[in-house]
Design brief:
Pfam families: Pirin, Pirin_C. This is Pirin family protein. Residues 193-293 form the Pirin C-terminal domain. It comes from Streptomyces formicae. It is a single chain. The chain is mainly β. It has one domain (11-259): Jelly Rolls. The chain has one helix and 26 strands. Strands 2, 14, 15, 16, 17, 19, 22 and 24 form an eight-stranded antiparallel β-sheet that branches. The two termini are 24 Å apart. 46% of the residues are buried.
Length: 321
């Protein structure tokens, strides 16, 4: 999914300077962003209070939207570099096309994982014949220096491992959780899991004390470490935890995001992740004028134009604003 903000700002994030070494309960409110003509998303990362959780650097939550009489998601071809995109649905379908020739319909609780490496472009759209409701999340993972120039590729995994307990089903999307490992390729120590809780469930989820974590609420009402969490909000949890108490007031859906704090400082702007201002400027120029990002074939429409870069020099701000 693209960042369609026409006032995209340059920022530097990453590094361990602002990682919270002990458990905390930091509630992150979303920013509402219009995605195309018919989809509004709630942006949780980057946030006014925090830019990254492990290598997770971008989180949009959308829906559930009634698109029975609407076109649904319509995101034209756009570029990415230096990151992985993770597509995760609870309802609906998204048709993915990219410049390496992938054509895949992603359905609920199937992993669509695109690794941009040095350059890729893709589009995302609701199929013409689609389900009534669209509900999901789009996330980005920053690639570390050793792997950020890998060949671009796309993976689709319809079957994913699960961890279960009374009233809890945890589907491992990326990385590892309680001994279960996702088949998706990860380039940094990371955890991404979908948590489905039934009403009245009280349980504790095992965590890695060296990871930092956050929980995104997708649906229902649950208490995470005693904090009530409503859909479209995220709770940052810091590091130093060996388990996470969960209590469901209703049937609820959550996403657990975590990983080792990301050592490197990265520059994020629009749909690019690099290391310097100059690298980002070159990527923008390449998207607008050259073949570097390839062609998305089969999409009925023009690719997105990049917004204008700000004239001010880049000012490092770390992991938090």
């Amino acid at each position: 999914m693209s960042n369609l903000d026409r006032q995209a700002s340059l920022s530097v994030c990453g590094g361990r300077g602002f990682v919270v070494a002990e458990p905390v309960r930091e509630l992150l409110a979303p920013r509402r962003v219009q995605l195309g003509e018919s989809t509004e998303v709630r942006r949780l990362l980057p946030n006014l209070g925090r830019r990254m959780v492990g290598a997770w650097c971008f989180v949009d939550h959308y829906g559930p939207d009634d698109i029975a009489d609407e076109p649904g998601m319509q995101v034209p071809p756009h570029p990415h570099m230096g990151l992985q995109t993770v597509s995760w649905l609870h309802e609906g379908e998204v048709l993915h096309r990219d410049s390496v020739g992938s054509l895949q319909t992603i359905r609920p609780r199937e992993l669509g994982l695109m690794t941009s490496g040095q350059a890729i472009s893709h589009s995302e759209e609701s199929p013409r014949s689609h389900a009534r409701f669209l509900h999901g999340a789009q996330l980005w993972v920053a690639l570390p220096e050793a792997h950020r120039h890998v060949e671009p590729h796309f993976q689709h995994h319809p079957e994913l491992p699960q961890v279960t307990a009374a009233g809890l089903t945890a589907t491992v999307i990326l990385g590892d959780l309680d001994g279960a490992a996702s088949p998706g390729t990860a380039y940094t120590p990371i955890t991404g899991a979908d948590l489905a809780l039934t009403r009245g469930t009280e349980t504790r989820l095992p965590l890695e004390p060296d990871f930092e974590y956050a929980v995104l609420s997708m649906s229902g009402e649950a208490h995470v470490d005693g904090v009530p969490l409503l859909p479209g909000s995220m709770l940052y949890l810091g590091c130093g935890r060996t388990e996470l108490p969960l209590r469901a007031e209703s049937d609820a859906g959550l996403m657990l995001l975590g990983g080792e704090p990301f050592d490197e400082e990265i520059v994020m702007w629009w749909n690019f992740i690099g290391r310097t201002n100059e690298e980002i400027r070159q990527a923008r120029s390449d998207w607008m004028t050259g073949p570097r990002f390839g062609e998305v074939k089969g999409y009925d429409g023009d690719p997105l134009a990049a917004p204008e870069l700000p004239p001010v020099p880049l000012k490092p701000r770390g992991r938090v604003r």
